[in-house]
Amino acid sequence: MAGVGLVNVRKSYGAVEVIRDFNLDIEDGSFTVFVGPSGCGKSTLLRMIAGLEDITGGEIRIDGRRVNDADPIERGVAMVFQNYALYPHMTVEQNIGFSLRMAKLSKREIAQRVASAAASLQIEPLLKRRPAQLSGGQRQRVAIGRAIVRDPEVFLFDEPLSNLDAELRVSMRVEIAKLHQRLGATMIYVTHDQTEAMTLADKIVVLRAGKVEQAGSPQDLYDNPANQFVAGFIGSPRMNFIPAQLRSGNAAFAGGIHTVPLDGADQDILVGVRPEHFRVGGDAADVDLKVDVVENLGGTRYLYGALPDGTQLVVEARDEHGIKAGDRVPLGFAQRRPLFFNTSGQRLADLS
Amino acid sequence: MIGRTPWWSVTIVAVVGCIWIIPVVGIVLTSIRPPSEVALGWWRLDEFTITFDAWARVWGQFPLAQAFWFTALLAGLATAGTMLLTPAAAYAFHFLKFPFRRLMLILIINAFVLPQQVVIIPLFQLWRDLKMIDNIGAVLIPYVGLSFAWSIFLVKNFLEDFPKELIEAARIDGCSAISTLRHVVLPNATTPIFAVGILQFLWTWNALLLPMLYLRSNVPLPVLLTKMSGTYESNWDLQSVAAIVTTIVPLLMFLVFQRYFAAGAQTRSGAKE
């Protein structure tokens, strides 16, 4: 088992710099998720750790060793690809055992290790089949089997679930979490899906345009986002951002009806409130929400609507049945103190 | 009805097919009738006797059997050479990085526009100076070398669609460049390799110019055919037999392997399309 360190890592394609001065310490045995919109460099970063992509500058360390110029095999990493990358001409058994065959292990040992990998993923009945005869979920298991059979120090996952249907995605997510508990290996996982990031990670690294926006535990990122980008990216549905004015120690928003005391110079600001932090109905209502669409998920429902000044909001209404599109619903902000951002998206220092 | 071939296209194809088959029928008929009967044309049916005299005599009068085996040897070796070297070269050009890669590729592909006739004289002088005239290598080397222009182009085009993740997965699994080629690329590239092999085989089996100029003692079938005509008086029947013997192998080859001509890239790593 080994930790991974990235020190001032840079990557450029010609004049275009896609990763700049990237620093990150990934602890031994942790589950780290790189998350960000497409094109943010998260896959490139993973491929640089894998050794599939040269790095332009800086240093990558695995288990304290500098591995900048090492082949993937010398780095002790295994990778699971988005589209599985199973060898189409080999059976499942041969696919899983291929790396061991390349490492010139004895036939007996290969058979043994393939069998135990297959057993742990419950794919023994598939061993004689070829990838084309497998379903998406089965292929993904084989791809994971190919990674675990080598007993690597670091597992790399490149959006492994994005080709699966929704139901399978959830169950494979749980399996990957179990796998991490069982193996205790360092895992680095790339996704654009914040739900996967929240549910799997010990540590989430939010990336944008090749830079770390924020790194921390999922709860930390949810409670204390450093800026508007992270606040908007983590959490589903997205956080609401309501334009407001900070005037002499009070933030006024929703047409000036609601005010919150806030330190700082007078300026235009944004108030961030998560959909789940509104209070719907009740007497302490601050503003009215005109509901346009109700998404009923059974246990909870999301109200899409607008404030009187036109600001679009998403609000979670957990217990209020019977709200219909077109209704006016009293909303309270008081459930939790909102977050404040300046107009360039940086979080403002707050009383709490 | 959708999906049905219209009657007129069937008719046109049938007519064209008949026109194409007429010379073949002519050759076969000429080979099995006495020369006197077909002197005015193989389609004359005034007298009609079938004799296998020519089929029996030709082997004794000309070294047809020897030429047959020699042609097979030449075409076989040249085809094997191309089938072994082309995928390796295409793989290197497509997936590996090395200095002057682009320049070398452009040079090789540019041989496309170079007609064979242009290189014949300089090549002849080279072989003469190297004392390679009448050496099997004198034709094998240009056979294989000249095939690279189109064969590398063809296989490299196929590799454009080859899933890059498979190459990367192989690297993660500990493959070197060579073992990636052997274990991952070649098993999934049989279609273009066979297509190249078949084309190369047909081309080298039918080749006339190079062996005629560079070989002396042992000659392949097309060269033998040219030597048969005019050497003796009318021997149309014998020439027909030799022509059939010469054509039959490429024809069978085509019939057996024709699906490779139509097949496209079918390698997929297993992702949902």
TrEMBL record, chain A:
This is Sugar ABC transporter ATP-binding protein. Belongs to the ABC transporter superfamily. GO terms for molecular function: ATP binding. Residues 4-234 form the ABC transporter domain. The keyword Transport applies. It holds the Pfam family ABC_tran. InterPro entries: AAA+_ATPase, ABC_transporter-like_ATP-bd, ABC_transporter-like_CS, ABC_transpr_MalK-like, ABC_transpr_MalK/UgpC-like, Mo/tungstate-bd_C_term_dom, NA-bd_OB-fold, P-loop_NTPase. SMART domains: AAA (SM00382). It comes from the Bacteria. It comes from Devosia nitrariae. Keywords: ATP-binding, Nucleotide-binding, Transport.
UniProtKB/TrEMBL annotation, chain B:
Keywords: Cell inner membrane, Cell membrane, Membrane, Transmembrane, Transmembrane helix, Transport. The keyword Transmembrane helix applies. InterPro entries: MetI-like, MetI-like_sf. SUPFAM superfamilies: MetI-like. The chain crosses the membrane at residues 7-32, 67-91, 103-124, 136-155, 193-216, 236-257. Belongs to the binding-protein-dependent transport system permease family. PANTHER family: ABC TRANSPORTER PERMEASE PROTEIN MG189-RELATED-RELATED, SN-GLYCEROL-3-PHOSPHATE TRANSPORT SYSTEM PERMEASE PROTEIN UGPE. This is sn-glycerol-3-phosphate transport system permease protein UgpE. It comes from Devosia nitrariae. The gene is ugpE.
